[in-house]
Specification:
Blueprint: E1 35-39, E2 46-50, H1 54-57, E3 63-67, E4 69-71, E5 75-80, E6 86-94, E7 100-106, E8 115-119, E9 125-134, E10 140-144, H2 150-157, H3 175-178, E11 186-189, H4 201-209, E12 213-219, E13 242-246, H5 248-259, E14 264-267, H6 269-282, E15 289-293, E16 308-312, H7 319-328, H8 330-342, E17 353-356
Parallel strand pairs: 1-17, 3-12, 3-14, 4-11, 14-16
Antiparallel strand pairs: 1-2, 5-6, 5-8, 6-7, 7-10, 8-9, 9-10, 12-13, 13-15, 16-17
Helix pairs in contact: 7-8
């Protein structure tokens, strides 16, 4: 089922009403006990399962694409050293000169040379960042006071950067493990690739024993994943850019899977963006590539790389909901979302998921 006309460009078509109590505030106790909605694009059939049922839903010879980016403790809390005024920040990136770009929130304006004290995990405020400049986009350029490596500073002061719809972004101890995939490897994301949160090491081993390929890609999820669509039409929205990589070894595994008649199933919209961005660059599926991508997948996008998609339930009027609608058809997706609400599925990052084939 394909959406082909410009009528699907209107943002209002991707809106729905969600009862607030369906927004998951905590993950299920066991990852594989999350519910899974199975959607068949050809027949329009919708079935209800659990993540633990995946070995019976995925065929031997299929490939699962897993985004192995690791969430970094990017949320920072502290004070302006000179005034004691409360300050909050979100680490975004570091340049090759060791200067950080930070999303900053405080009263008044920080000036070059000013110091920010960060609160460590024992609640102590310690001078840690020096303001370098205010950037044109409103973000802040800072440098660690003692020039310590990023990993050291964030490990000492950083917190899990939960999205605001989960407990207003306030982490608890369990989030350190819960908001990270079991196969996370390369630090760089400020939000989790949430479809992957449903997997355990045992489930992956079980799938592999039954003949499922697992193929790693990397996409570092950026701040733009939280940014709402800023226009009335999807085509007028400026998509954010994120760094990603499809290695030659992973590309070869996916080519072999497709040649042998297996299905290529992306775990998450981030994995989808990697392989589709690489395909767009080369004009063919599964060509190795790395770099920044601002690909915006929306109806009537024609997919080159994936045959199936496992994904969580997304925010109304979001770019991610548009991506899923491009893959399965807007009408089918909105029907599925309505059924998920009626069946009391749990939504968003810590919620349940769907598998679209």
């Amino acid at each position: 089922m394909n959406d082909t006309d410009i009528e699907y460009d209107t943002l209002e078509l991707y809106d729905f009403r969600l009862p607030r109590e369906l927004i998951a505030q905590h993950p299920v106790e066991h990852r594989i006990d999350a519910r899974l909605m199975l959607i068949d694009r050809k027949s329009g059939a919708i079935e209800h399962h659990y993540v633990r049922d995946l070995p019976d839903l995925i065929h031997p010879g299929d490939a699962l694409i897993l985004n192995n980016s690791k969430v970094i403790p990017a949320r920072l809390i502290g004070t302006r050293t000179s005034t004691g005024g409360r300050w909050e920040g979100l680490y975004l990136r570091e340049d090759d000169q060791g200067v950080w770009e930070i999303l900053s929130k405080t009263r008044g304006f920080l000036t070059a040379g000013e110091t920010i004290s960060l609160q460590d995990h024992d609640g102590r405020d310690i001078p840690a960042l020096t303001v370098v400049a205010r950037l044109d986009n409103g973000h802040l350029a800072v440098r660690p006071v003692d020039l310590a490596p990023r990993e050291e500073v964030l490990a000492r002061f950083g917190r899990v950067p939960l999205p605001p719809y989960i407990r207003d972004g306030q982490m608890v101890d369990g989030d350190t493990q819960a908001y990270q995939t079991v196969y996370a490897k390369h630090p760089g994301s400020v939000a989790a690739p949430t479809a992957g949160l449903h997997f355990t090491s045992d489930l992956i081993r079980h799938l592999q024993k039954r003949g499922t390929l697992t193929v790693a890609v990397t996409l570092h999820v950026g701040l733009g994943t939280f940014r709402p669509v800023s226009a009335d039409r999807l085509s007028e929205h400026k998509m954010h850019s994120e760094w990603c990589e499809l290695s030659e070894s992973s590309a070869e595994k996916l080519r072999r899977c497709r040649e042998n008649g297996g299905r290529v199933l992306a775990v998450g919209t981030t994995s989808t963006r990697v392989v589709e961005a690489a395909a767009q660059r080369s004009g063919r599926a599964f060509a190795a590539w790395s770099g920044e991508t601002d690909i915006f997948i929306r109806p009537p996008y024609q997919f080159l790389a994936i045959d199936g998609l496992m994904t969580n339930f997304h925010l109304p009027k979001s770019t991610l909901l548009a991506l899923v609608s491009a893959f399965a058809g807007r009408e089918l997706i909105m029907q599925a979302y309505q059924e998920a609400i009626e069946q009391r599925y749990r939504f968003y990052s810590y919620g349940d998921c769907m598998l679209i084939v």
